[in-house]
Amino acid sequence: MLRVELRDVGKRFGSTLALDGADLEIEAGEIHALLGENGAGKTTLVRTLYGLVRPDRGEIRLDGRETRIDSPAHALSQGIGLVHQHAVLAPALTVAENLALGEKDSLWLPPARLAQRARTLLEAYDLALDPETPAGELPVAHQQRLGIVRALARGARLLILDEPTAVLAPSEVDSLLELLVRLRGEGRTVVFISHKLEEVTAVCDRVTVLRKGRTVATRPVAGLDPRELGRWMVGVDPPPPGEPPGGEVGSVALRAVGLQAGLLRGVDLTVGEGEIFAVAGIDGNGQAPLEEVFAGIRSLEAGKIEVLRSPLALIPGDRQRTGLVLGLAAEENLILVEAARGGSEPLFRWGLLRRSRLRESVRETFSRFDVQGEPAQPAATLSGGNQQRLLLARALRERPAVLVAINPTRGLDLAATGFIREELRRAARSGTAVLLVSTDLDEVLELGNRIAVLFRGRLYPVEAGRRTRERIGELMLGQVG
Amino acid sequence: MDAAGLALVLATLRLSTPLGVAAMGELVGQRAGVLNIGIEGLMLVGAFGAFAVGVATGSVLLATGAAVGLGCLLAAIFAWFVLNQRADPIVTGTAVNLLALGGTGSAYRLLFPPERPIVSPPAVPDLVPGVGVFLLVAVLLVVAVAILLSRTRIGLEIRATGERAEAAHNEGIPVMRLRWACTLFGGACAGLAGAILVLWISQSFVEGMTAGRGFIALSLVLFGGYRPARIVAGALLFGGANALQFQLQAAGFEIPYALLLMTPYVLTLIVLALYAGRAHAPGDLARPFVART
Ligand SMILES: Nc1ncnc2c1ncn2[C@@H]1O[C@H](COP(=O)(O)OP(=O)(O)OP(=O)(O)O)[C@@H](O)[C@H]1O
Ligand SMILES: [Mg+2]
Fold first, then answer.
1. Count of domains for chain B
2. Are residues A137 and A211 located together in one domain of the fold?
């Protein structure tokens, strides 16, 4: 068991004040939630505790003793483990090899032994993965779960999970929450970062809310009103859930017939102008190939896709891998699509980028989509939620006629989620045909004019009269009848 | 096998050995994410060290030790600039090559002025007639590197460091120390390769005598797909082509000798490029590492 105190931690990155005197006090053996809007400093704070960020000021106390943690090796030796917001794996190494990283017990690790160890672990944590797959080929959700298993296998006394549920399906979320409770029962301490208040109220003992790098409050969760929590986080009430757009559906803008690629076993769909067609389902049922064929980065084995209106914009599902060029500035990422289309006026003249116009246009987009960060900042250094906003801004900026959006609000805070969903509805109302692929049930219900569930590569429409969480849940598990 | 055939085989082994040895060192470094194009220079200082100490002491062991030591020393300079100061590895490697070329040339002229009688270093003892002990050392080295990389924890840590240093660091693996160690190992191997050139192959020192062998070793690593067995095959190919070329020259065929000299290089490149497929370079190769922000 480990009791942790962080006192008055400050950290500045260039012109951004990420932490401005944050406090965090974690009792031994509790599940402590860390909340805050996108960019509040949650990740920076826990990275400080893990020795990845050098704070400008402040102190860390472990069991009352002041301790300097200057590397993950040191954090690990103190019994602290971290599951990153974006899984940090060696992509070319296999699942088994990634799981074995950092293990110190034996020098002799032939492949058979690695695979054996991996199988035991994967089984113990109920993760059906082939130990020989290169980790980089896994969908984000599986990479994330791999990171969780690795941290758990380490047997940390204090386990920090940075938005572990953002990429998980509802059933997986439930089993993760159960696992956290089990860990607490074993006497371990857990720090849990999430934007989902119901997850926090379900299992956490106490909660700390961060706002703009400062600690706003630390409270016991019992008896807490979720609305009150939301107010602390952003200072206003969280937006109420919305309804799918109600306008007229125009002619067909996007049609797919008999799509077969990888897991996809013949998917038919049409999306009309002004309509949101939502595809629900648990990740790993064909979401990845579906995204890839619409992105044009995977060829179809059979079937065809007709894009009847243009331009088509895409919000990729993996912001770090296929969404952004992490080393490029935020503003450069924002105009990649425009640049690729040949660079037209007003941002370009004679094929040359006009930097001053770019700044102007970027500032406008940043403020419209509330991207917090500097336009010139590398995309890698934006907070997770702001990277996501950048993707949305890029897609919606050019007023697409067809929009394919994969988990567009993954990792966004409550306010931002509400805002983005409203933006998608607004796009639909103005005639955009939206194909939404989401593992978030609420999202699908709040947005989809029509809903279908992707299960084992096939699409099962949700009957108009049976639009309930229960029905969709059944279909997600393959109970078609 | 007739005498000519045997001679060809022996020459092939002799000429391949320094390439294989140098390439193993470069391989380990690159697998950890360190691209050292100064390998040519490292070999050259190794060759010079082996020659000078061999002439002075008459001991193969001391001469080899000096070569390994000098290789390590120069590699340490490279490592300090590239790993600690985050200097560009291409620029630094080039500087190392130039430094080695100029340094060994000047030192050679200083220590062995033309008016001094011609001296030669001791020859490495033979395992069997025509096969020096170095071949055994090289074989052991290749086997050790292959096992290290594919079947040990340290090998896994090295590969993780080269693929994605951040991931390795996150799991408590000492990225900097590993990269330093692997770079020094590369220096030692290159130094040893230089010693092999002098003590087994040529029995003399000539300015710039490595003649691009370091760069060949470098490309063997790449085209061999970062796999020891393929790298060795590439080394044998180059050594064989070179041996054949010498025999043709000696037999007095009517082919311009410059063309003959060129064939091993061209042949090796073509075959390797055809067979290598799309080799996967370590993801974080030549990228500087920042431990804390
Ligand atoms: N390495 C860095 N360089 C520059 N700015 C950074 C860096 N890391 C974080 N920041 C900035 O610090 C602020 C806090 O980021 P942090 O990632 O801690 O937020 P967060 O609370 O985790 O948000 P989210 O919920 O979106 O993940 C952001 O404005 C971010 O852009
Ligand atoms: Mg974060």
1. 1
2. yes
| The pLDDT value given to residue A238 | 65
Task: Give the one of A13, A73, A109 whose C-beta lies nearest to B156's C-beta.
Answer: A109
Hunting for tokens 């594919």 — which residue is that? B150
Q: Are residues A298 and A221 in the same domain?
A: no
Of all residues in chain B, the one with the smallest CA distance to A89 is B167
Q: Report angle CA A96, A108, A145 to the nearest 5 degrees.
A: 20
CB contact under 8 A, B171 and A72: yes
Q: Confirm whether A320 is domain-assigned.
A: no
| Within-domain flag for B261 | yes
User: In which band, very low, low, confident or very high, does the pLDDT at A236 lie, cut at 50, 70 and 90?
Assistant: low
Are A133 and A36 in the same domain? yes
Beta bridge partners of A353: A348
Q: Retrieve residue B253's tokens.
A: 């065929």
Residues A227, A175: one domain?
A: yes
Please state, in angstroms and rounded to a whole number, the distance separating the CA atoms of residues B152 and A100: 11
- B292 occurs within a structural domain: no
* A152 and A180 inside one domain: yes
Q: Under 8 Å CB-to-CB from B262, ≥6 apart: which residues? A: none
* Residue A345 resides in a domain: no
Report which of B171, B181, B192, B139 is spatially closest to residue B31, judged by C-alpha positions. B181
Q: Which of A12, A54, A382, A410 to mutate to test the pocket of ligand 1 (most atoms within 8 A of CB)?
A: A382
In a domain, B52, yes or no: yes
Of the candidate ranges B80-89, B158-167, B242-251, the one whose mean pLDDT is the lowest = B242-251
Range of the domain at B157: 3-114+130-275
Closest CA to ligand 1's atom 8: A381
Instruction: Give the torsion sign (CA, B68, B73, B77, B79).
Output: positive
What is the average pLDDT score of chain A?
A: 90
Reported as a single tens digit per residue, the pLDDT across B29-43 is: 999 999 999 999 999
CATH of the domain at B232: 1.10.3470
Q: What is the CATH number of the domain that holds A304?
A: 3.40.50.300
Taking CA atoms, what residue in A is nearest to B280?
A92
Q: Which residues from B are below 8 Å from A96, CB to CB?
A: none
Residue A60 lies in a domain: yes
Flag whether residue A108 sits within 8 Å of chain B, measured between CB atoms: yes
Pair A148, A29 in one domain: yes
> By alpha-carbon position, which residue is closest to atom 3 of ligand 1?
A381
Q: Is the CB of A417 under 6 A from ligand 1?
A: no
Residue A374 alpha carbon to ligand 2 centre in Å = 17
The answer, yes or no, to whether any atom of ligand 1 lies below 6 A from the CB of A38, is yes
| pLDDT 10s digits, B186-195 | 999 999 999 9
- The answer to the question of residue B109 being in a domain is yes
Chain B residues inside the 8 Å CB shell of A106: 153
Task: Tell me the DSSP string of B201-259.
Answer: IISS--TTTTTTHHHHHHHHHHHTTT-HHHHHHHHHHHHHHHHHHHHHHHHT-SS-HHH
Q: How far apart are CA B38 and CA A12, in angstroms?
A: 39
Residue of B nearest to A11 (CA): B293
CA distances from A324 to A19, A282, A327, A356, A372 (A): 25, 24, 9, 22, 16
- Look up the domain containing A464 and give its range: 252-311+398-476
Angle between helices B228-251 and B133-151 (to 10 degrees): 150
Ligand 1 neighbour A131 (Cβ under 6 A):
no
- Which of A85, A95, A101, A154 has the most B C-beta neighbours within 10 Å, making it the best mutation to test the interface with B? A101
Domain end position, chosen among A202, A234, A266: A234
